[in-house]
Design goal:
The structure is a single chain. The protein is an alpha+beta fold. It is built from 20 helices and 25 strands. The chain has 4 domains: 2-77, Arc Repressor Mutant, subunit A (Orthogonal Bundle), CATH 1.10.10.10; 92-302, Spore Coat Polysaccharide Biosynthesis Protein SpsA, Chain A (Alpha-Beta Complex); 320-416, Phosphorylase Kinase, domain 1 (2-Layer Sandwich), CATH 3.30.200.20; 422-625, Aminoglycoside 3'-phosphotransferase, Chain: A, domain 2. The strands form 7 sheets. Strands 3, 6, 7, 8, 10, 11, 12, 13 and 14 form a 9-stranded mixed β-sheet that branches. It is globular. This is Phosphotransferase. InterPro entries: CcrZ_PhaseVar_Mediator, Kinase-like_dom_sf, MobA-like_NTP_Trfase, Nucleotide-diphossugar_trans, WH-like_DNA-bd_sf, WH_DNA-bd_sf. It comes from Bacillus salipaludis. Residues 93-213 form the MobA-like NTP transferase domain.
Length: 626
C-alpha cells in the first residue's frame, strides 16, 4: 500500500488535473483503490481538492510535500525479495484473549461497545473476509466466555500459566490447532474493518500492521529497514528513526510461526517474552514485512480510561469513517463496471437479500440495482452459469435487462423495475396475482430454452454436505433421520419419467416483483438451471404458505386443467421435501460462516419431516419397499 501511496502523491505532484481513472492507470491499481487512497490522504491532510464544474484537481499540502520528500527516497531504495513465496489465502485466525484485565474483571474482548462485544465485532469482520476457522486463546477468566453461546462453535485453547507468561506462551499454546498461514489479533483491539482487508491482501505472507504513533504512552515502536521489520521496542531511546507503531494485528506464515514456537520452546529462557519480540528474533534470519496504514482509526481497551476514550471518541469516528469507505467501496464497483466518474453516482440505498448485498443506485438520474455477492457464495454458485441463464430470462422478458455482470466476482448491475412492489406471501394467495405468477412460470417452463446447467438436487445435497463439513457446520437435531428417508425417496423419484425444463429454482415470493397492474418479474437467477418444473411450483407454494385449496387453484391455473394428475401431486410433495432438506443444509453452511437466520433452518427441517409423513409419501414408500 505504501508503494501506491508514494506513486499517487508523485502523480498528483506532477499533474494536479489527473482524473482518478488516469491515476489508477499510472499506479497500476483499481479505481476503487485510488478512491481509498485519495480519501485517506485527504483525511490525513496530505492533499486537498478543488472542484471546477465536473472536474476535480488535487494538490499536495505542505504536510504532503514533506511526507513525499522524506519517504520517496526510502521507497526507491527498497530491494526486491526474489525468494518471496506466493500469497496464500488466509482461512484461519488466532485471537489472543489470555491477558489479565483487573479493571474489567473479564477479558477485554468481552467488553461491549454499542451493544456488541469487541470480540464479536472482530469475528464478524473476519468472517466477512472469508475466515471462519477461529482459535481463541484464553487465560484470565476463561469461564466468562460461557455466557456467550455465539462463541461455542469456535476452537478454544487455554494458557493455564497466563499469570506468569507473556503473549508468546499463549500463541504457542495454539500450535496444535494451526494448520496454515493465519491472521493474529489481540482481543483488546478496535480497528477499522479495512485494516483487516488490507493486511489479508498484502503480498507478503509475513507482515505486521503498523500506523502513526498514537501517543498512548504504551506504544510498541517499529523501525523498518530495507522494506522489512528491523526493530520493535517500547523504549524510544533505542531508535535511530521511528517508522510507526505496531498495533496488534499480524499475518504469519505457518513456517515462520513454527520457527517462533520452536525458538520459544527449545531456546528461550524468558517465559515473559511477548510474541512481537520472538517475531523480531526470527526476523534476523527471515524477512518479516509490514503494512503501514496512515491515519488509521483504532484503539485498544486495557483499562477503564481506554474504554471511555474508545467509546466516546474513537468509536464514533470509526463508524463515520467506515460508512464513508463502505460508500467508496460500493461506488468503486460501479465506476469500474460502467466507466463512471465518482460524481455520476448520485445516491445509494440498501436493499434486502439473504445471500447477497443489494443496493438501489441512482446514476445520472437513472435507477439501477447493484448486487454484491455475500460471504461464502463463491463456493456455492457458478456465476458463469448464472450470467448465461439470467440473460435467457431477460430475453424472455421475465427479468429486467442486464447492464453488467462480472463472472469472476458475481457483481451484477441491472435496470431497476419501475413501480416495483416485491410480492409477499399474503399477496401471492390472491387469484389475480396467481394468474400473473403462473403465467411467468409457464413462459419459462414452456420456452424450450436450454440453460447452461442442470440443477440436480441430489448432486447439490452431496456438494452442500461437503461444504457443511468444511465449514464445521453442525446439522440440526433429527437431520440424519430425515436424510435416510430422503435417500429412499431419491430412488422413487429418479424412476419417474418427466422432462427437464428451464427453472428458476428459488422462486419464493421475495424474488418476484410486480410492476404496475399486469406485469411480474422473476429476479435473482443464482440457482437457476434445467430441472423438474414442479420444483419451482413446490417452492413457491411452500414459501407462500398456500393452504391445500390455494395450492389446488395455483396448480389448475398453471396446468390450465381442472383436475391435477396424481403424478403431479406426487412430484409436488417430493420436491417440497427435497428442497426443504437442501436449504436446511444451505442454512447450516451460511450460519457456520457467520450469518444469522434465526429459526429459519430448523423450521425448514421441521416442515421437511412433516411432509415425509404425508399420505402420498407413505403410499409411494410402501409400494417401493414391496
Amino acid at each position: 500500500m505504501e508503494q501506491h501511496l508514494f506513486q499517487l502523491l508523485e502523480a498528483i505532484n506532477k499533474n494536479a488535473n489527473l482524473n482518478q481513472k488516469k491515476m489508477a492507470d499510472i499506479c497500476g491499481i483499481s479505481i476503487g483503490k485510488v478512491n481509498y487512497l485519495i480519501h485517506d490522504l485527504t483525511f490525513g491532510d496530505y492533499i486537498y481538492s478543488e472542484k471546477k464544474g465536473r472536474n476535480i484537481s488535487y494538490f499536495l499540502t505542505q504536510k504532503g510535500i514533506d511526507f513525499l520528500k522524506t519517504g520517496i527516497q526510502a521507497y526507491h531504495d527498497k530491494k526486491v525479495n526474489i525468494h518471496q513465496e506466493p500469497l496464500t489465502e488466509i482461512k484461519q485466525a488466532v485471537i489472543l484473549a489470555a491477558g489479565t484485565r483487573k479493571d474489567f474483571n473479564k477479558p477485554a474482548g468481552l467488553m461491549e461497545i454499542d451493544g456488541i462485544t469487541l470480540l464479536q465485532r472482530n469475528i464478524d469482520i473476519l468472517q466477512e473476509n472469508g475466515i471462519n476457522d477461529i482459535v481463541i486463546v484464553t487465560g484470565f477468566k476463561p469461564d466468562a466466555f460461557e455466557a456467550f453461546p455465539e462463541f461455542n462453535h469456535y476452537q478454544f485453547v487455554h494458557n493455564p500459566k497466563y499469570k506468569w507468561t507473556g503473549s508468546m506462551a499463549s500463541l504457542a499454546q495454539a500450535h496444535g490447532t494451526i494448520t496454515n498461514d493465519f491472521l493474529l489479533i489481540e482481543d483488546d483491539i478496535l480497528i477499522e474493518e479495512r485494516a483487516i482487508k488490507e493486511i489479508l491482501s498484502h503480498p507478503q505472507r509475513d507482515c505486521v500492521l503498523i500506523t502513526n504513533e498514537s501517543g498512548s504512552g504504551d506504544e510498541a515502536f517499529v523501525e523498518i529497514k530495507n522494506g522489512y521489520l528491523h526493530k520493535i521496542s517500547k523504549d524510544i531511546h533505542q531508535f535511530n528513526r521511528i517508522d510507526g507503531e505496531m498495533i496488534g494485528i499480524s499475518k504469519l506464515s505457518y513456517e515462520v510461526y513454527s520457527k517462533m514456537v520452536e525458538e520459544y520452546q527449545q531456546k528461550n529462557k524468558n517465559p515473559l517474552i511477548h510474541y512481537e519480540y520472538m517475531l523480531l528474533d526470527i526476523s534476523r534470519h527471515y524477512n518479516i514485512g509490514y503494512l503501514n496504514m496512515h491515519n488509521l482509526v483504532w484503539g485498544e481497551i486495557d483499562s477503564w480510561q481506554h474504554f471511555n476514550t474508545v467509546t466516546e471518541k474513537i468509536y464514533p469516528m470509526l463508524m463515520r469513517k467506515e460508512a464513508e469507505f463502505r460508500e467508496i467501496f460500493i461506488k468503486s464497483h460501479l465506476m469500474e463496471a460502467l466507466d463512471l466518474a465518482y460524481e455520476d453516482i448520485e445516491d445509494i440505498q440498501p436493499f434486502g437479500g439473504m445471500t447477497n448485498k443489494n443496493f438501489k443506485v441512482v446514476i445520472k438520474g437513472k435507477e439501477f440495482v447493484l448486487r454484491i455477492p455475500g460471504n461464502g457464495t463463491e463456493s456455492m454458485i457458478n456465476r458463469k452459469e448464472e450470467k448465461f441463464n439470467a440473460a435467457l430470462a431477460s430475453n424472455l422478458g421475465i427479468d429486467t435487462e442486464l447492464v453488467y455482470f462480472n463472472e469472476e466476482t458475481g457483481v451484477k448491475i441491472a435496470e431497476l423495475i419501475q413501480d416495483a412492489e416485491t410480492l409477499t406471501p399474503k399477496m401471492t394467495k390472491r387469484q389475480d396475482i396467481m394468474e400473473l405468477t403462473t403465467a411467468i412460470f409457464r413462459t419459462l417452463h414452456f420456452s424450450n430454452l436450454k440453460m447452461a446447467n442442470r440443477f440436480d438436487v441430489f448432486e447439490r445435497i452431496d456438494e452442500y454436505e461437503r461444504l457443511m463439513r468444511e465449514a464445521n457446520g453442525q446439522p440440526y437435531e433429527h437431520f440424519e433421520d430425515a436424510r435416510k428417508q430422503v435417500m429412499v425417496l431419491k430412488g422413487i423419484y429418479q424412476d419417474m419419467n418427466f422432462n427437464l425444463t428451464p427453472c428458476h429454482n428459488d422462486a419464493l415470493p421475495q424474488n418476484m416483483v410486480k410492476s404496475g397492474e399486469n406485469k411480474v418479474y422473476l429476479i435473482d437467477w443464482e440457482y437457476s438451471g434445467m430441472n423438474d418444473p414442479m420444483w419451482d411450483l413446490a417452492w413457491h407454494a411452500m414459501e407462500s404458505d398456500f393452504s391445500p385449496e390455494e395450492e389446488e387453484l395455483f396448480l389448475t391455473l398453471y396446468l390450465q386443467e381442472d383436475v391435477i394428475p396424481l403424478e403431479i401431486q406426487q412430484r409436488m410433495i417430493m420436491n417440497k421435501i427435497f428442497q426443504d432438506f437442501l436449504w436446511t443444509i444451505w442454512t447450516v453452511i451460511k450460519e457456520a460462516k457467520g450469518d444469522d437466520f434465526g429459526t429459519y433452518g430448523t423450521d425448514l427441517l421441521a416442515r421437511c419431516r412433516k411432509n415425509l409423513e404425508h399420505d402420498l409419501i407413505r403410499e409411494m414408500t410402501y409400494e417401493f419397499k414391496k
